[in-house]
Design a protein that fits this description.
6% helix; four-stranded antiparallel beta sheet; mainly beta; 4 strands
């Protein structure tokens, strides 16, 4: 990987209407980082790690990284 991020997240999948907003390891998504990429271009990333805090869901984190085929 060229870039890896650790991101604090909220589990929207527990809210009504957001049941499909659940992430799993290996899922692909997009990251926008204007400071790093120098523009608002998005970078395709893959989820490589999930950390769930059962006592405090506001502390949940995911780790993503970009990849090359």
């Amino acid at each position: 990987p060229q870039v890896a991020y650790q991101i604090n997240v909220l589990a929207l999948s527990v809210l009504e209407g957001y049941e499909l907003c659940e992430f799993d390891i290996g899922d692909k998504t997009w990251a926008i980082d204007q400071e790093f990429f120098g523009s608002e271009d998005r970078e395709e990333v893959i989820i490589t790690e999930l950390s769930e805090m059962l006592d405090d869901p506001s502390m949940d984190q995911i780790k993503v990284q970009n990849f090359k085929n």
